[in-house]
Specification:
The structure holds two protein chains of two kinds. Chain A is α+β, with helices and mostly antiparallel strands. Chain A contains eleven helices and ten strands. The longest helix of chain A is centred in the middle third of the chain and has 33 residues, at 186-218. The chains are: A alpha+beta, B alpha+beta.
Chain lengths: 352, 384
């Protein structure tokens, strides 16, 4: 499977996702039938396709495409969970999966089993998931734990866009064939989550731009399409620039989902894409006028997701704090070398 | 939205070796410069430094060896450029020649022009200025009225150019002017001429900017005779050439690194006792900087691949100007101008802040105003 095949195939699978995302007024954003198509396409394992030459950036292209259609399925979450379980040498179940950093769980080893107890907040699609991959620290070592749906209870929660974000209550003994060494620690997993959301924001922004351009070209006021007014053109230009910046930042983070620079690049992406989301969503609503503020119009499928995703896996301020601390630690003389190492594989390797 | 896609820049392990080399060169040549000098960046002038850059092989890098160049890639040139800017090297004298006039001559110049000029540009001994804006046509370049009347053996030029950076220091100007009879095509009838600024009839008058610096000039032409060999490219084809030239002018690292010294001095000043507010603000600026750099490097990669990324270049310049203008405004609120946060007195920090505040308005004017850039982006989106 080449990367372009992957992209084309994702575009097909998610083409009609927007209709599924509309759903009933207060129902969670979830489509079992769309999930069946995702599973059939083999996307769940995309992050573990390395041997077939699929990079993490290619795999996250699926997440971007899904977000560009407001797809109501946990595709990114499943891909990461699948990768965690596979890297830990564990069997990977069928069906939608989700993941969480289990820093609020107590985990102790005994008699060959792992006792896990506690509460996880706002786990994406926990109710719909067939299982969770949770990273817990045991004796300062990160372990991946595979929790099956039967191992936990969920309490329904939703984000602004009505995507399931459920609390999970767990108290169980996990047998040895369902836990193993994690490929990433708690902070690393949180950064992967931030990158997933940044990539998704880039996808939603692309649709936001396309829809806003189309609307401005159709809507006639004062005898001409509003796209002909310079003030509107400049708003559209800014949406395009913000979209391009979000995409560039998200691409960088997606290219290095793991490794020494992953956390810093995730921070760059989450800050930049989050800021782009705020600006572009505001401008898109302004260009759309009152119709964009209705439930009937599809604009909110994208703006609500952008607003929700800004807040998940760390806000712009939280990640900016991380980046600022790194910058101050590098100091005035080390700052520029830090910046160049981030997007220059050769230089990064040389200085590592 | 393929037209606003920024392809990942190609990886090249040779770049890190070059980067180390340039850093060592800069440490040796300008290691002792104070931040107040560094903030001048590509407005700083130093003939000895320009010659040293030429001797080190850092100018005319992408020119072929037969024109004194080094046959290196656009990405290699990018590394050198950004290292120079990040260090605040005084690259002003050779900057325009190396960035756009040389490449323009390489693309459109006559063989005689290339042989005469390019080796001197590569040596860091030949400086250029750009004759585009006029008193009555700034952003509206097509309204330029300076005229080069074709006569036996050449042209006779009359008109006035303005906002001409470094005309008083440059050897040559690339003049955008009308050579053909007026027609309905606003973009037709223009040409580019290579002007030796020592030619009789040219008067260069200083225009001091509000910071008191002499960078701009007004350049008037009164019956200036130039030979036919001064024509660059096609007579009447100047508009297309000048638009291509602007892609070189708009995408480079100088579009977001002009005030870089403010950021490093801010980090220096805040480092002793950084507030959470300072960390968040510096982190946010870092996210913007890293993203802009990625986008700018992507444009360099596209140029190297022979593509025409003029829309992407325009996006980089527009976002870059916003970043450069934000920087001093954010800095002054985190570490006040009169503060002594750097522990060495306020000299360095205050010097860079003052310079940046006073020059910031120009960042969204030079190289195309914000309004023009957003119009170009809108056109690229199919709105015009």
């Amino acid at each position: 499977m080449s990367d372009t095949l992957l992209t084309d195939s994702a575009a097909q699978v998610f083409a009609d996702a927007e209709a599924a995302a509309r759903g009933a007024r207060s129902a969670p954003a979830w489509s079992a039938s769309l999930w069946a198509r995702v599973e059939e396409a083999g996307f769940a394992a995309a992050l573990t396709y390395g041997e077939e030459g699929i990079t993490s950036a290619d795999a996250l292209g699926i997440v971007r495409t899904a977000a560009a259609h407001a797809a109501p399925v946990p595709i990114g979450e499943t891909m990461v969970a699948h990768w965690l379980l596979a890297e830990a040498g564990l069997a990977v179940p069928e069906g939608p999966l989700s993941f969480a950093a289990g820093d609020t769980l107590a985990a102790t080893e005994g008699d060959g089993a792992l006792y896990v107890e506690g509460r996880l907040a706002a786990v994406p699609y926990a109710t719909e998931a067939a299982g969770l991959a949770v990273v817990v620290m045991v004796k300062a070592r990160p372990l991946v734990v595979h929790l099956r749906a039967a191992d936990y209870a969920t309490e329904r929660g939703m984000n602004l866009a009505r995507e399931p974000r459920d609390d999970v209550v767990v108290r169980t003994a996990v047998p040895p064939d369902r836990f193993g060494p994690a490929p990433v620690g708690l902070a690393g997993l949180f950064a992967i989550g931030a990158t997933l959301r940044s990539v998704a924001m880039a996808g939603a922004l692309e649709t936001l731009l396309a829809r806003t351009l189309a609307y401005a070209g159709e809507r006639v006021q004062f005898g001409r399409p509003i796209a002909k007014f310079q003030a509107v053109q400049h708003s559209l230009a800014q949406i395009a620039s913000e979209t391009a910046a979000a995409r560039a930042a998200a691409d960088m983070a997606a290219e290095r989902l793991t490794g020494p620079d992953a956390g810093t690049l995730a921070a760059v992406a989450k800050v930049r894409a989050g800021e782009a989301a705020t600006k572009a969503a505001g401008l898109a609503h302004q260009v759309h006028g009152a119709i964009g503020f209705t439930e009937e119009h599809a604009l909110h499928l994208y703006t609500q997701r952008l607003w929700a995703w800004r807040d998940e896996f760390g806000t712009e301020a939280q990640w900016a704090l991380v980046l600022g601390e790194a910058a101050l630690a590098a100091g005035a003389s080390g700052y520029w070398p830090m910046v160049t190492a981030l997007d220059d594989a050769a230089s990064g390797a040389a200085e590592a | 939205m393929d037209q606003i896609a920024f392809a990942p820049p190609a990886d090249d392990p040779a770049l890190s070796e070059l980067r180390r080399e340039v850093r060592a060169f800069l440490a040796e040549t300008i290691g002792s410069h104070r931040p107040g000098q560094r903030i001048r960046s590509w407005m700083g002038n130093d003939a000895a430094f320009s010659r040293a850059c030429g001797a080190a092989g850092y100018l005319g890098m992408t020119f072929p060896a037969r024109y004194g160049g080094h046959g290196r890639t656009a990405m290699e040139r990018y590394v050198v450029s950004e290292e120079m800017l990040a260090a605040g090297a005084p690259v002003g004298l050779h900057w325009i020649a190396d960035r756009q006039s040389g490449p323009l001559l390489l693309q459109y110049g006559t063989e005689a022009q290339r042989q005469e000029i390019l080796p001197k540009v590569a040596a860091g001994e030949c400086y250029f200025c750009i004759g585009m804006s006029e008193p009555d046509s700034g952003s509206d370049l097509a309204a330029a009225r300076t005229r080069a009347e074709p006569v036996e053996g050449g042209f006779v030029i009359n008109g006035t150019k303005v906002w001409t950076t470094n005309a008083h220091l440059a050897h040559y100007m690339i003049l955008f002017c009308k050579t053909e009879a007026a027609s309905d095509d606003r973009h037709g009838g223009a040409s580019q001429l290579l002007i030796d600024l020592a030619t009789p009839g040219i008067t260069i008058s200083p225009i001091h900017n509000m910071a008191g610096a002499h960078e701009f000039n007004e350049v008037s032409f009164r019956d200036v005779h130039v030979p036919a060999g001064a024509l660059i490219g096609t007579r009447g084809g100047g508009w297309a050439q000048v638009m291509g030239e602007l892609a070189f002018e708009r995408s480079g690292p100088e579009r977001f690194l002009s005030t870089f010294a403010v950021l490093t001095e801010l980090i220096h000043a805040a480092a002793a006792d950084p507030s959470r507010e300072a960390k968040v603000a510096i982190g946010r600026l870092t996210a913007h900087l890293v993203t802009l750099r990625r986008m700018s490097r992507s444009v360099a990669g596209l140029l190297q691949a022979g593509e025409n990324p003029s829309l992407q270049a325009t996006i980089v310049k527009d976002l870059g100007a916003v970043f450069e203008q934000d920087l001093p405004e954010i800095a002054r609120l985190l570490v006040p101008r009169g503060g002594r946060g750097d522990g060495q007195g306020q000299g360095d920090y205050q010097a860079v802040l003052d310079y940046a505040v006073l020059h910031a308005p120009s960042f969204s004017l030079r190289g195309g105003t914000r309004e023009i850039l957003r119009g170009i982006i809108a056109r690229g989106l199919g709105l015009r």
